[in-house]
User: Fold these one by one.
Assistant:
Number 1:
Amino acid sequence: MSFTIRKQNGIAIVEVEGQLIVGNRQELKQKVLDEVESGTRKVLMDFARTGYIDSSGLGVLVSLAKTLRDDGGELRLANLNDDLRTLFELTKLDTLFPIAETRERALESF
Amino acid sequence: MPQSAFALERSIPSDVQYIEGIVAEVAAGCATFDFPSHLMSLNVPVALTEALANAILRGNGDDREKTVRIRVRVDDVQLVVEVVDEGKGFDLAACTRDPTTPDRLELEDGRGLFLMQRLVDRLEQYVDGGNVVRFTVRRT
């Protein structure tokens, strides 16, 4: 499990490798909040290499989205596999987050 | 136990850092006994993660001196998982809320039991030498 953040045209691209669960959600949250603290307002979560996400992981995404929105920013998601899409649909979080098929499309949509 | 069955029993300290390892161990065991892979990519790992997290954080109050026990059995029909903590138990129906309503959609917490209900075929809670959360996932 690891989180990598790359910057591209002012957008922080967060690659989530492995699981996003209760044991590592705070690490992800802090990394993104550090980016927000340094001025970043656009964040893209790329789940191309993500396994599964639990309710704690979903909760962190909701929390970060609210933080960014309150600061005039936005959190977008990309590269959800079928399982992750099912997870977002079950919880109706697919109605809360802008979700793109690919990283490129997500970047274009900011 | 039929030859096509797999059983596992583990006991872990109340520390969420143990969760991923247990889930991986159960997944490996299920794969050995040809449990459907599509159920092992989302349903079982998420349900097990939720059950363990609840046991550690709520049942045992995040007290690392306390223990969580896990029992898993896979046979030709189904997977049954029991997660046992040292808490007093809880009312499963009363604690399971719908997090998809407009007033709850943006809350950070409150999706765990709901997700478990949706991802498994049967979810039970009872007290038997500890607080037991038991879930069943059928092969078909």
Note: The first strand of chain B starts at residue 6 and ends at 13.
Number 2:
Amino acid sequence: MLGDGILKGMAETARNFFGSYISKERLTTVEYPEHRIPTAENARVFPFLVYDGADGEAGLRCVACQICEKECPPKCIYIDKSTDKKPDYVGKPQFYPARFDIDISVCMSCQICVEVCPFEAIKMDTQFELATTDRFGGLLYDRKELARSNEYYHSIHPTEATEVDARLAEEKAKVEARAKAAAEAAAAKAAAASAAPPAKTEGGS
Amino acid sequence: MIATSAAANPFFMNLDQIFVLLRNWLVGFLPVALRPAAGVVLAVIAIVCVFPGLFALTTVFERKGLGRIQNRLGPNRVGPFGFFQPIADGIKSLTKEDIVPFSANAVVHFLAPLVLVVTVFMGFAVLPMGRNMVLVDMDSGLLFFFAMGAATELSVFMAGWSSRNKYSVLGAMRAVAQMISYEVVLLLSSVAVVMITGSLSLPRIVEAQNQYSGIFPHWYIFTPWGLAAFLMYAIAATAETNRSPFDLPEGESELVAGYHTEYSGFKFALFFLGEYLAMFSISGLGATLFLGGWSAPFSFLQFVPSWIWFFGKVMLSIFVFIWMRGTLPRLRQDQLMNFAWKFVLPFTLLNLLVTALWRFMGEGWQRWVVCTIILAAAYIVMGRLGMSGRHIGRRSYRYAE
């Protein structure tokens, strides 16, 4: 009959109207500034630099290899390589970025810098409340502003960070083992050398 | 009229007449010569204050209600539960820039919102909002009301035409076509009431309904012809006030905002106000004609002040308007016209015949049966035939494809 569809629709909206007062599940609204949903683990906004230990300056993993700078599609990364070197996490002397700037007004959050970094030094942040009153300086992040601790990385991407840590530890162990082997070999060589040379010198002269 | 002892209580009688007494008391301070004029001015001030106040309340209730219908929260930021939202909206619309398009006809563009609000306010003059609470007890109040209602179409077309914007003109043309089509229905459905009451005076129409059989009132909606006329009136009223599902004149999806596209700031707010006031006045007239105006729904509730009933009925109608807006999608222009001319108008004309039959069949159960059967059968048959429409299949192209 004419109009029964309208009545059915009205019943449905009435059910919604009263239901929204009774069952909280119907209301999907999250009142944002006061309440918020935890961000998804794979969320990504803009990159940051990871550092180990407590000091954001000394512990920076970045070795200023400039791969990310070259790969960045919108060219939002600017790196100045240092002139001196400092030891990295395995103790090998490496360059460090004297200057590392990311212009987040240019960055397109593609994550390519993260994928190309061989040192696990640059990762994606989940922080999205980045509004600022200064659209030039306020959106140009320098090395200090970009540095975040490894613990912070763990807190935002726990799974990924654990994998990264395991990989780094493995590498470090390998390097140490190699160093140890090299040291042993050197020691053996030295021992052999200390035993052998007199005869040799004698024989040679 | 007051039957029960509770209603005869002087306290309730005074409460019922509180606004009339207040006006008389205030007017009493003036010299006798000025009293009639001062009384009218006071009543006008009351109307001009009360209805925009209701408008402010309605906007926030509408937004919250629509939100709840869609399982949202609705506005809840300004003040407790968002109830100060209209104040924020008012400040915003007052402080916004008033833009008049360069090529617009500035005078007409300026006048259009004023004409709308003024004519809509005029309609309230003849509405009885309570016992003895009518600004002008005109013998032809209904006619005056419809004359003023028709003038709102003028303002809509003024707005659309003077903006010199294609969306505005399209919206205005749609609005005029729609309003004129449904104006006919609105009038004819009210004529049924006039036929039974024999009066165009709205207070008299309310008095005619303010009688009780047992506890039940003699409202016209409780008769077959009255129910039919009320339904047709409600449909026409929705179309007259450009409310969803008949809100084509301001169809956002195709016309930006329709006839008030080029209005901003307070002029836009006036259009908004005018639309809501039209809703109030047309709901008030519907309540007066079919829902017994200010009379109580049960005889034992007569002690409740009459103005509470009137405003209660108006707000109930507004709630239904909002409910429909939250439920129904917008019609297409051809569907709108088909519905007006092929279903609503013939049915209203038939209802006039049925009303005449009711009038001349005299008291008794026979007229109930006969009128109900005629109307129900007509509704079903016309619904089947008139509105089924041709089922148009997939379009086939001769050369393309």
Note: Strands of chain A lie at 47-51, 77-81, 86-87, 93-94, 97-103, 122-124, 140-141, 147-149.
